[in-house]
Amino acid sequence: MALRVASRYLPAMHAIVLSKLGGPEELEYREVPDPEPARGEVLVRVKAEGVCGRDLIDRRGGFRGLPLPVILGHEFAGEVVRAAPESGFAPGDRVANLLRLGCGVCRSCSRGEAVICEKGWQSYGQTRNGGYAELVTATPATLVKVPPGVSDVEAASAACTFGTALRALRTVGKVTLNDQVLITGASGGVGIAAIQIAKALGARVIAATSSEAKHQALVDAGADEVVVDPQGSLHEKVRALAPAGVDAVLELTGSPTFTSSMRSLRNGGRLILVGNILADSIKVNPGAVILFGYQVLGSAGCTSADLEDVFALIVQKKLRVVLHRVLPLQSAALAHQILAYRGAIGRVVLTP
Length: 352
Known about the structure:
Layout: E1 12-18, E2 27-33, E3 42-51, H1 53-60, E4 70-71, E5 76-82, E6 94-97, E7 100-101, H2 107-110, E8 122-123, E9 135-138, E10 143-145, H3 152-155, H4 158-172, E11 180-183, H5 189-200, E12 204-209, H6 215-221, E13 225-228, H7 234-241, E14 246-251, H8 258-263, E15 265-273, H9 286-292, E16 295-298, H10 304-315, E17 323-328, H11 332-340, E18 347-351
Parallel strand pairs: 11-12, 11-14, 12-13, 14-15, 15-16, 17-18
Antiparallel strand pairs: 1-2, 1-4, 3-5, 3-9, 3-18, 5-6, 6-10, 7-8
């Protein structure tokens, strides 16, 4: 995946290129050659790109197979520039992407579950260039058409937030009417979306954050209760609200809160692990899992059907995309700094 500075003889675009692992200062805004789609691929002009905590992990080296140099960004929305007729897309179509590319032939992919593909694993911004750029090439199976009534910025904030939350809560966690659900890291883009999804499923939501300053934003998103816990005593505060424990925890923080989240569950409760912001290992007490019948479930990304459902709910005004800031592409380092200091309530989005 060689990237080089474009000469004046080559069509060139601007992109954020990561050539060296490290801090936000390693995100370099420069010209590179326009990408050329392989046979069967679609060329998309990026209109908006969501910034996620996973981008920070990748930038620091948390993804061991990350090829350098690389263009980060796993959630983009834009307009089709070039596509073969058999792709199902045409120039001018508005599209957003799924996070993962499956093999297309295994049992999971044949059931529309490419997020748990059994044979292949590719992801935008990791194994191939992503959306921190003016143009990106995409596999048709990973694109979903964006309906009228959903803006580019909203579309670039949907798959990794609402789509991920919908799959984790509805499909994996089986959350249903009157369940009590704890959401950790609730003020981030996925957390704000998850509060709304859980409420739409009929659950009572306890939202956890480390900052009192974010309390009102979580209430505004629909949380029934807000727990502010900067000290690691989350389970004690949750048990004060739900003495028998919650039915499910959507774990968006990972290692910093995992143990406390487990202790917040009722007997037989489900912990759905979606995020791990520090990429640290997590210790699990097998005896507690056995004795109390806890279910620990993993969930990542969403399917095309999930994202289509999300777009429909946004159009119907049943879901509201919460944006913290919309920044120009060249401010990618600032976007990473905002997320690193946990200063965002909702999503940070880049626009070329």
